Input
Amino acid sequence: MKKITLGLAMCGSFCTFSRVLDAFEALDREIYDFVPVMSQISFETDSRFGPAAQFRERLEALCGREIVHTIKEAEPFGPKKLLDALVIMPCTGNTLAKLAAGIADGPVTLAAKAHLRNERPVIVAVSTNDGLAGNAANLGALLNRRGYYFVPFGQDSAFKKPRSLVADFTKLPQTVETALRGEQLQPMLYGTPAG
Output
């Protein structure tokens, strides 16, 4: 059976990187081949959560190939139809806004734009402190746009950060499976009872 080629794209929500990589590593390697993508910031920036090299090495070890981290490297995703699905996890507010506005000025946003032209799914796992504030309109725009599917999300700290949203990264495998069938995994808001 031919494997499904899955792009794994990371943006700069550094506090989530360890959990995101755990979720990537939980994906079934018998089913998927992985293509790693990182935004320039996530590729280069050392943060209090760890050095950039540590996260790059872990992602490359999982995927078995070098990380796409430039616009030039991301451009072929469209014309060469390199992916069956693209995961953007974590998807920062900055990336969310650019996707909603159609801006493709970095490797992750260009990979998404190039990939969408092939009518294939983009799976978004939000991680942003302003998901219920400045980025609420952008989130709403993508929720209504064809081709986008969301890893279930909710408030990560309702009293300390009432406008912050983060995806439940453990739901990635199920979200990818349903997105490949053209369906949104439900419930999309975690903490919401099913049915």
